[in-house]
Amino acid sequence: MLKYKKADNNGFSFLGLFTGAGGLDLGFELAGFEHTESNEILDYAVNTLKTNRPNWNVVHGDVREYAPSFRKGLDVLLAGFPCQGFSLGGNRNEADERNSLYKEVIRISKLMQPKVVVMENVLNLRTMKHPVTGISFSQQISNELAAIGYKTKFDFFRVSEHGVPQTRRRFILVASKEIDLDYFQFPVKEQHTPIKEFIYDLGKNISTKLNNHDAQWGFKSYAHKETGKTVSQSDEIVPVRLSRTASDGNPIRSFDVPFPAIDTATVWGWAQGEVKAERIHKDRSGSKYVRNPKSNAKLWRISASRIRSFTPREYARIQTFPDDWVFCGNNKREFQLQIGNAVPVEFARRLALQIKNGLEAFVNGELIKFTEAKQVQIWD
User: Fold this and answer.
1) Phi, psi at 208, each rounded to 5°
2) Secondary structure letter of residue 199 according to DSSP
3) DSSP code of 170?
4) What is the pLDDT of residues 300-325, one digit of tens each?
5) Cα–Cα–Cα angle for 164, 165, 168, nearest 5°?
6) Backbone phi, then psi, for 355, in 5-degree steps?
7) Radius of gyration from C-alpha coordinates of the chain
């Protein structure tokens, strides 16, 4: 069972914007920061937050209409603003109106004057150009923070090098008026984290009882085939990609490496018993579910004795949410949007520990080069 040991209260506070299912906020809470307020627009995500943290003050509404309930004394402002306009998995449109929501972070930073601002998004902020200024969004955001007195430092991370079993890459910007960012150090990368320790137990034992985990064999698909042959004790379970069948990567995944990035669209699952994957040419004339009839790409097809899709809990494990974090929603889409859009909790926690180091160094008047604090992830 995936659990975390919460650090003692470190005396610093945080406020979350675009909180979603709470990955970034939860990571900071686990590192010992005190929650003050969160803002989120999606009703099912708000239900998730209130279910798990009934003591949190969660403001349900559009960030453009959000006014914090207090003005002074905030240590850290968190903002994982929407990525759909920047992401390769989304529209990647410079003029997408959601791309301008970072300005709400600037507005609230100017209003509240937090000691630190932490912004999170996709890697493409370093290359996509702002439609007005023509400079990268990462530099544009940095310039606008500088205009209200903040120094900034940003970098890009592969979270599999920070305790998360997937290759997801993230952009992190830290802004501060008080921490000497010349001495601030982001989390130090480690060896890549393989997947087996996180989800193998759930694939192996379908009867495990957990929140958001109703595991059942039987995947209905026009593409993949369950043969129905008897499964023996020696038949290993393997994780497989069930959607995006034209992808170049083999859909059968190894337990010994990180998983591909969990997103809001790709369907993953398990297969067991004589598992095979092959690429075929598809006759696209008059066939069902053909997105591009002119394509000649080969498609992956999986056959196995039995197949099932991942449960929300298995996706959440890969995003390093603890098993007692309950997701609320009315359908699979709402679960996957919350989990796929979240900041992996373990990466958020490690980032929070570095922010804590920086704030403590300021309080003590020290100029030190920070090193990453000891990790305290606990498994039962």
Assistant:
1) -55, 130
2) H
3) E
4) 999 999 999 999 999 999 999 999 99
5) 75
6) -65, -40
7) 22
Give the separation between CA 351 and CA 315, rounded to whole angstroms: 22
pLDDT score of 377 more than 90:
no
Structure tokens at 94: 């410079």
> For the whole model, what pTM was predicted?
0.91
pLDDT of residue 336: 95
pLDDT at 94 (0 to 100): 52
CA distance 6 to 99: 34
**pLDDT of the residue at 28:** 98
Whether the Cβ atoms of residue 100 and residue 137 lie closer than 8 Å to each other = no
Residue 362's Cβ-side half-sphere holds a number of Cα atoms within 13 Å equal to: 17
Residues 344/168, Cβ–Cβ less than 8 Å:
yes
Q: What is the predicted pLDDT for the residue at 371?
A: 47
Which residue from 119, 138, 30, 50 is spatially nearest to 78, judged by alpha carbons? Answer: 119
Residue 46: what are its φ and ψ, rounded to 5°? -60, -40
Give the CB-side neighbour count of residue 86, counting CA atoms within 13 A.
25
Nearest to 173 by CA among 137, 197, 222: 137
29 pLDDT higher than 90 = yes
Query: What confidence score (pLDDT) does residue 191 get?
Result: 94
196 torsion bin: left (phi>0), alpha (psi -120 to 50), beta (else):
alpha
The phi and psi torsions of 109 (rounded to 5 degrees) equal -65, -45
Q: Which tops the pLDDT comparison, 287 or 148?
A: 148
pLDDT at 375: 47
Beta-carbon contacts of residue 54 (< 8 Å; ≥ 6 apart):
none
Q: Is 35 helix (H, G, I), strand (E, B) or coil?
A: strand
Cα–Cα dist 205/247, whole Å: 29
* DSSP structure class, residue 18: S
Q: How many residues does the chain have?
A: 380
Rounded Cα distance, 217 and 208, in Å:
14
